[in-house]
Amino acid sequence: MAQQKQRKFFKIKISILHKIMFYGVLLVFLTVGINTYIAVKTETEVLTGKLIYQGRHLAKDLAFSFKKAFPSSDMAFMAELLAESTTGKHGEVVYTRIVKPDGKIYMADDRSFCGQLVDSSILVEKDGTFTNHFFPAQKDSGILLVHPLNIDGQRWYVMVGLSLKSIKTTTSRLIFHNLISGSFAVLLGAIVSFLLAKSICKPIIALTGASKIIADGDLEHRVTAETNDEVGELARTFNDMAVKLKKSYTHLEENVEELATEKELLSITLGGMSEGLIAVDVDKRIIIFNEVAENLCGWKFKEVEGKLIDEVFQIINEQTEEPLKSPIDQALQSKKTECGSEFDVLVSRDGSRCPVSASAATICKTKGEVVGVVMVFRDVSHERELDRMKTDFVSSVSHELRTPLTSIKAYTETILRDKDMPEETKLNFLDIISEETNRLASLIEDLLEVSRIEAGTAKIQQNAVDVAAIIEKVLTALEPLAGKKNIKLEPRISNELPKLSADESKIESVIINLINNAIKFTPENGRVSISVETANEQMSIRISDTGMGIPAEALPKIFNRFYRVYRPGKEIQGTGLGLSIVNKIVSMHNGRIEVESEIDQGTTFTVFIPLAAEPVAQSCHS
Ligand code: ADP
């Protein structure tokens, strides 16, 4: 590019110099040429005129002498006169002849021509001048002068032939001299025009060089204005322009810097937003598309820049599946901030759907003219899930509370009403009441545990825990429950099990929850096995069942509070709190929990806890 510029610059420099030189030399050449032409023409005319004048004078002299000599018939003097006329001082005279009225040559300077006939066309009545007449004897052209004279009533002719040789010689010499002086003039013209061209081009070349330096970025460069003429003026104007350019450039640089900072700020803000943001112009063509929008819509900004928003952002009604008007369209129409409905579902590029909450506002210029729309939207699937879970929880808890309460109420009222109830029946009823009260207490304990963990007030009482003993205790307690469904409980625990440094009651709660779930979600005649191992300074407690399993899509959610797998037609009671409590307790012991499951094959939960667990403080959001 730079090379190309340099070549161009060089070309301009050469071309101006040569042009001035060329026109200078051409001017001198033309002047010399025209001068020579005029001089030669004038000289030829003057000399020819002079020659004709002399020739005519000679013709008249000869006519006068012949007229005088003719009556006496003494032609000797005349012959001498004719012979003399072509020699001596009259070198230009080719011949002199006296022609009779019948056209025959009567006398001539060269007697050999006497008696020959002349061309009748030249026998004119008055003085005649024939230029460019060919003289065969001389094999050259010249001027023929014919002078008629009257003798005895008859027309005789005196003819004088004139050569142009001497005129040609003179003009040739003139041309030669002019050529020599012309060549000098052309040479001088070339030198002068070269010097002139150089003096004109020098400041232009300097200006061109300066503009190149400025174009390359050195805005401090200036040209020295040496003269007071137009070129000097141009140099000064150029310098003024460079000063202004520098100012504008500095201003521009500041603006660009400001803009870059603003852009950086905007991009950080957009990138840091947890909501999707799309901005469109008034034609609904995308101009901003942040990272969250990319993730939610499945398009990259580069792919959608300048595209119509409708090709990228499609929302439908969650319930009716009908396409909805986007908040952008609504905002453009109403020129106000518009929000989407609570049933908005975004259909992304790959067809997947995501519930969103979107709102859009118009972007206006200071005069109120709408130049675009900005839309903010976010994925509300978590909130919807939470809502659903809360609703489920409220109904589950109410149900769980109501069932034991209803039976407690019924049995209590029966005992109170029937005063004569046999003692055995009464005891039986009181047993049931006590059992139901325990159920209630355990449910309330679960709720309290969750709230304690959530509030961060749950503490770990660390002591040496005999896990085998806990399992045995839990199995004994749950045996009746398993027995009801003929489920076999299979403990596989080695006798050499080391003690676990943990909170005994919490570990017991973990084991109860997991075995209880295993029994609850395993159909009749199934098996629940419990094994404990130690390796790498940690204990693993594995509870496997041959139950109904957990769908793959539900696995990541089962540890969420209130989450319960939706099993149509298989209503199993629960609150969705058990696994959430288990997970929190395991985390508090610096451990982890893994789950593997296959539908209708069974589920295995494995809890890993370090043998000497360092308790971890729990925050309400952990
Ligand atoms: P719940 O009170 O419903 O038992 P949990 O938090 O203990 O609540 O369990 C959450 C969900 O995980 C349950 O609703 C159940 O669908 C599923 N689940 C837990 N354990 C098992 C298991 N062993 N087999 C199949 N599903 C299970």
Walk me through this protein's architecture.
- With 622 residues, this protein is α+β, with helices and mostly antiparallel strands.
- Helix content is 49%, strand content 21%.
- The protein has twelve helices and 19 strands.
- It has helices spanning 2-69, 76-85, 165-215, 230-272, 291-297, 301-304, 327-334, 381-417, 423-455, 467-484, 504-520, 578-588, and strands at residues 93-99, 105-108, 128-135, 140-151, 154-163, 276-281, 286-289, 314-317, 338-339, 344-347, 353-364, 370-379, 462-465, 488-493, 500-503, 527-535, 538-545, 592-598, 602-610.
- Strands 6, 7, 8, 9, 10, 11 and 12 form a seven-stranded antiparallel sheet that branches.
- Helix 1 packs antiparallel against helix 3, helix 8 (381-417) runs antiparallel to helix 9 and helix 9 crosses helix 12 (578-588).
- Bound molecules: adenosine-5'-diphosphate (ADP).
Query: What structural class do the secondary elements suggest?
Result: alpha+beta
Strand runs, count: 19
Radius of gyration: 65 Å
Question: How would you sum up the global shape?
Answer: rod-shaped
The end-to-end distance, rounded to whole angstroms, is: 62 Å
Bound molecules: adenosine-5'-diphosphate
Poorly predicted ranges:
618-622
